[in-house]
Amino acid sequence: MVIEGLDGAGKRTLADGLTAALGAKGASVASLAFPRYGKSVHADLVREALHRGHGDLADSVYGMALLYALDRSGAADEIRALRDAHDVVLLDRYVASNAAYAAARLRQDATGEVVKWVWDLEVDRFGLPRPDAHLLLRVAPAVAAERAERRAATETGRERDAFETDDGLQRRCAAVYDGLAAAGWLAPWHVLDGVAGVDLEALATSLLGQ
Ligand SMILES: Nc1ncnc2c1ncn2[C@@H]1O[C@H](COP(=O)(O)OP(=O)(O)O)[C@@H](O)[C@H]1O
Ligand SMILES: Cc1cn([C@H]2C[C@H](O)[C@@H](COP(=O)(O)OP(=O)(O)O)O2)c(=O)[nH]c1=O
């Protein structure tokens, strides 16, 4: 089960709440967040590039997308093992993040060339496990930006990066996510209203019933 959404949408908060709600129903839950900062050299390179390291690396849409994909590729066996051992595996961001952000950076939509490239690379070439479903935590880009800003002010080590401070990118990214969800890209999408708030108990019940 993949949670997707803009920076600051509340994905991590949803993952924590959903883990507790599923646990309360007796389900065993494992979770992983991408990029795997501190666990994968590819993810660490991404973080450094997003904070102005490594020269012009962050300017390359395909170069950055390849690093995110290599991080995931290194986690493929772990995801399969978690899937065998648990009722639910929650992933905070996955392949669709690459599709949404790369397309938004290149001003393409969900049917664009780079979205197909991400699928060819990560699904067909790297053989990453396909998710059962996506949860798109949908909030207006201004709300997500405000939450990310507040988080940056209150948590150490969460300074906003090059993608998070680019309002135009976040707006285009929201539109690509909507397109991916409408197309059922890679797996079915369930759209959650991240402003009204998510009924965690009901969501946990429906996920376990799937
Ligand atoms: N439903 C919500 N209402 C208000 N604030 C929220 C909500 N969900 C998350 N937040 C806050 O917004 C900030 C970003 O949330 P977080 O879960 O870290 O987002 P993401 O993982 O999508 O970047 C955090 O400070 C968090 O406490
Ligand atoms: C996982 C992933 C993230 N991203 C982008 C989305 C975010 O703007 C950025 C960092 O990921 P994010 O999950 O926001 O990390 P954090 O908030 O902990 O810094 O990377 C991609 O472009 N492709 C991907 O495959």
TrEMBL record:
The enzyme's E.C. designation: 2.7.4.9
Xref: PANTHER family: THYMIDYLATE KINASE, UMP-CMP KINASE 2, MITOCHONDRIAL
UniProt keyword Nucleotide-binding present: yes
Enzyme class: transferase
GO MF term set: ATP binding; dTMP kinase activity
Transmembrane segments: none
Keywords recorded for this protein, A-Z: ATP-binding, Kinase, Nucleotide biosynthesis, Nucleotide-binding, Transferase
Domain Thymidylate kinase-like, residue spans: 3-166
Assigned GO CC terms: cytosol
Designated name of the protein: Thymidylate kinase
Protein family: Belongs to the thymidylate kinase family.
GO biological process terms held by the UniProt record: dTDP biosynthetic process; dTTP biosynthetic process; dUDP biosynthetic process
Native source organism of the sequence: Amycolatopsis vancoresmycina DSM 44592
